[in-house]
Write a structure and sequence with these properties.
The protein is of the alpha/beta class. The chain contains 14 helices and twelve strands. The chain folds into two domains: about 140 residues, Rossmann fold, CATH 3.40.50; about 170 residues, Dihydrodipicolinate Reductase, domain 2 (2-Layer Sandwich), CATH 3.30.360. Strand 4, helix 4 and strand 5 form a beta-alpha-beta unit.
Length: about 325
């Protein structure tokens, strides 16, 4: 497959580097300032090295990459809220050109899901977005394999930064600000960690899960599906971890429990917030690990866990989606 990659952050760069191992070639690579385009294939390592040295990726305008010779557009620009731009427009141009789009960017899927699906319906291309939920964990493909209509609820730990902070606070009895600074020093937290610690990132993932489940359950209740607007971030009840004191974790430990930032999609609601969980239970993953629990109609509870973030980890989800396109 010929790939056009928009966004050269951790995920986009990792996809560019790993693509040849999966039998694909990168024919367009763009950041916000410039693009390199070659229908015969690019040397991604050389181009990314140029960028690290402060040079431009190429001589083309980033917009030109969207009209290149690719089969699949990889949308890996930063997630934005509200109108989800410019990511949504990038995907729209790919679909209007009857090309496929694979997203690592959560914005278009969480905030404009209905419009995205409408564009896909009119296109010969497909939209896939495994990488938008829990990095390397095959959350959406597992739901698809089970049948979304057979999954009644999903809950789990969906943000590695928040989980690192809470698990360190619990293990060492340290305060939030101290552990946050440690996480930033280690590169686990961004300089501005608000997206993670306020629960927004986990909420976006839950919104995406809610839309996938609602779409699947629409097969069983067409009338309800017809009137229900897709979920957006505005539909989620969200609370972060900034105000969790060490004393709360100490009290929880005395009762054999701990606190984790849990996202949950159940009975049409989307909720994210600190929750008490058994100290040695399934949801008490530590460090940057993520876990999802799927409640199913016929198979009981299924747990899937692993690395929920990171460049190469999330890139594997993007590349798996490309493989599922089957073209």
């Amino acid at each position: 497959m010929k790939l056009g990659i928009i966004g050269t952050g951790a995920v986009g760069s990792a996809v560019a580097r790993l693509a040849p191992e999966y039998g694909h070639s990168v024919v367009a690579l763009a950041d916000s300032n410039s693009a390199a385009i070659d229908s015969d294939g690019l040397d991604s390592e050389r181009l990314l090295a140029r960028k690290r040295d402060g040079e431009s990726l190429g001589e083309s305008d980033p917009g030109e990459a969207l009209d290149g010779f690719y089969d699949v557009l990889i949308e890996a620009t930063p997630t934005t809220l509200g109108d989800a731009e410019p990511g949504f427009s990038h995907v729209r141009r790919a679909l209007e050109g009857d090309r496929h789009a694979v997203l690592a960017n959560k914005g278009p899927v969480a905030e404009r899901y209905g419009e995205l699906r409408a564009l896909e319906e009119r296109s010969q291309g497909q939209v896939r977005f495994e990488a938008t939920v829990a990095g390397a964990i095959p959350a959406l493909s597992t739901i698809a394999d089970l049948g979304a209509g057979n999954v009644t609820a999903v809950r789990g730990v969906l943000n590695g930064t928040a989980n690192f902070i809470l698990s360190r606070m619990a293990a060492e009895g340290l305060g939030y600000e101290h552990v946050l600074a440690e996480a930033q020093d280690l590169g686990v937290a961004e300089a501005d960690p608000s997206f993670d610690v306020q629960g927004t990132d986990a909420a976006l993932k839950c919104v995406i899960l809610a839309n996938v489940l609602a779409e699947g359950n629409g097969d069983n209740d067409a009338d309800e599906a017809a009137v229900r607007e897709p979920y957006t971030l505005a539909d989620a009840a969200v609370e972060g971890i900034e105000h969790v004191p060490p004393s709360a974790l100490e009290l929880a430990a005395e009762d054999g429990r701990t606190i984790r930032l849990i996202g949950e999609v159940s009975q049409g609601s989307v909720r994210v917030g600190p929750r008490l969980v058994p100290e040695h239970g399934t949801l008490a993953v530590t460090g940057t690990q993520n876990i999802l629990q799927l409640e199913t109609r016929h198979a009981g509870r299924l747990n899937i866990s692993g690395r929920g973030a990171g460049g190469p980890e999330t890139a594997t989800a993007v590349l798996a989606d490309i493989g599922r396109l089957g073209v």
